[in-house]
Amino acid sequence: MSSVDEISAPATGAYLGLGEASRLLGITPSTLRRWADRGQIASFTTPGGHRRFPHTTIVALLPRLRPRRPALTELGTDGNQISMAYRRLHPAPGGEPIRWLTDIKSEDRDLLRERGRHMSECLLAHLDADGPASAMANLHEAARHGTEYGHHAALLGATLTEAVEGFLRFRSPFIQSLAATARQRGLDTREATGLLVDAEAAMDKLLISFIEGWLAP
To answer: What is the CATH number of domain 79-215?
Structure first.
């Protein structure tokens, strides 16, 4: 055996089998076996040929769970960053410009841009909220801006298809910015997945409000 540690007479419950240890770490048994063979993790082999790992060693490799995900604003994501990401992707690489946005007056375009920034800020506040009441209040505020955005798009002559296309151009950089933050700032899998799932759900609600605004008389 090439393990760094030789352990004998293990106490009951103090050790994990290969399958149990690998599941706890979220890796394949072959990967954990390779680590043990290289001496990268303590293990011993029973007389019957079964690999065993100290429970304390496996637990020490697990990421420490934080009581809550760090706030996005603390990680460097804010409304201005989202707006910059949107401008970098508008028009989308290889795609056509959104005609109704390019044809409107600059003051109308500035108004829509400002409402988009407010939506981003409210969505970020929703995702960072420390309780359900605060989260819902920020989501409702974001939806209000979305409704106004959709209504103004209709007044400017955008068809529903064109208006939704514009909204989806806003949605993409928002989600991409969150994903980039999760990668660059070291959020663990649980935190990153929860963040993106919550963001997608919020965006779905915002899209409904946007369409309702377009349909409003």
So the answer is: 1.10.490
* pTM exceeds 0.85, yes or no: no
Q: Given this model, what pLDDT does residue 139 score?
A: 93
Can you give the residue ranges of every domain in the chain?
Answer: 15-61, 79-215
Q: Exposed, middle or buried by CB within 10 Å (0-12, 13-18, 19+), for 122?
A: buried
H or E segment and range at residue 9: none
Tell the CATH topology of 15-61.
Multidrug-efflux Transporter Regulator; Chain: A; Domain 2 (1.10.1660)
Q: DSSP states of 43-107 as a string?
A: -EE-TTS-EEEEHHHHHHHSPPPPSSPPPTTTTT--HHHHHHHHHHHSSPTTSPP-HHHHHS-HH
DSSP character at residue 186: T
Which stretches in the chain have pLDDT values below 70? 1-13, 63-67, 76, 78-98
